[in-house]
Amino acid sequence: MKVYALIGQSGTGKSYKAFIVAKDRDIGYIIDDGLLIGGTRVIAGQSAKRESTKIASVRRALFNDPDHREKVKNALEEIKPEKIIVLGTSLKMVQEICQVLGLPEFHEILHIEDVSTEKEIELARKSRREDGKHVIPVPTFEIKKDFSGYFIDSLKVFSKKDRFADIVEKTIIRPTFSYLGKYELSKVALVQLISICVSKVERINKILRVRIENKPDGVIIDLDLSIKLITRIDLMIVELQKNLVEEIEYMTGLNVLSINVTVKGITT
Asked: What is the pTM of this model?
């Protein structure tokens, strides 16, 4: 196994650049902030960006938790990657990660200055400093359920090599320890948001009841409705569910696990 290191201070754009470095060197796997990533998938681990403090985040990134560490080690033993790149803020950090995960000596050590321009690094620092933004090098759908209640958005990374171009989606989040991180949304506010969305549908008479169940990875919403008589109730309900999911996730950052609609009244 060839092990590469990408080192750079926090907020200099390591996670953003990880895909490009891996692509250029034909590296199939990345270890970043507690996650073992293969291609566009999270293979094992838990993101350090979910932790509530910077200290807890660092401990998670160093795989100090025995269960977390063993799951990633087992995944590595099963996969047996030919090449892997480890991200960290210092040489000491990436060495500690390799030691606890049982990885061999480094084949190549890279610094963020080797793969990014001064302008790119300054832009990354500005984004972290002013917006609290962090990048996770996997598509949003891969980690969305783990970051319910965080501000989350997708990022397209363009990588051009020879005559071919790759467009790979990464994810931007604002973690809990960021000053713009996780927030609390009351059920009353969420019910009001649902009511506004439902009121836009002409054929719905009124909402009879709303039940909201909070889960660690998102919310489940149950709606009881009274509607006006139409020929295709099923199509109207499906469209309502789709619109509600889009509006709630966009406006709140919550991951909507399901919206269950029950029609309990029909008027002419």
From this structure: 0.64
